[in-house]
Design goal:
By secondary structure, the protein is of the alpha/beta class. It is globular and about 45 Å long. It binds zinc ion (2 copies).
Amino acid sequence: MTLFSNNHQQRWTIVQISDTHLMNQEDLEFVHMNPERSFHAVMHDIQQQYPQLDAIFHTGDLAQIPVAETYQRYLQFMQTLNTPHFQIPGNHDDAAVFPFHLQSNQVHAIELGNWSVILLNTAVKGRIDGWMDAAQLQQLDQLLQQHAQQQVIIACHHHPFDMQSHWIDQHKLKNTEALIDVLARHNNVKLVLCGHVHQDSLNEWQGIQFYSTPSTCVQFKPHSQHFALGPEAPGYRVLHLNADGSFSTQVHRVEHVTQQINFEISGY
Ligand SMILES: [Zn+2]
Ligand SMILES: [Zn+2]
């Protein structure tokens, strides 16, 4: 399904934000950080640095408190940006109230000229780890076939590959084999974007780049065997996509919003 189409350009700039963990009220804190304030600082930086954005993708854990008012506040803000924006659910979200486009388990493709972004839902109600059901895998296969002439980006919440961090790897996408079986049948997938791990990382499999992206809120300490927060600032990922199939990407950190985080916290 095509949600958005833009065929008049040679270069596209998109931004990935992730893991905003917004509360139901804007003045509440999550692990001693105000997620609303850090989200707005990140969005302010994005607007300053990239005033001509083609789309913004949110890769899940939009809400820490997944109730209607949290999502409405987010959507009201996003609608002021005049930039197409898309979001997929994370384990902390509630698909029943999440601002999805149509059904949450339907696989969507957003076309940006020579590029397409395919949105997956790896979140399963009542679970922290991720899973792609058979219907979604089949839809993905069909969409990759339909977009055979395009460069494809896949976005999902859970990390498909280990982060060398025991606690978070227990919560990864559990049927990565099934996903890469589908990817292996096509040669148009360039990259896979995920959130969930609250850190920047790159893995490569069969020429496909798998990126994770920092949270707009608290960061998890890389390579930690137990739950631990890191000192890095909130951030986001920007991607420049060229018509010839080449791309570049970088993570930006928004240093001035780093607050006094309680690093002694022991749960997620
Ligand atoms: Zn998260
Ligand atoms: Zn998550």
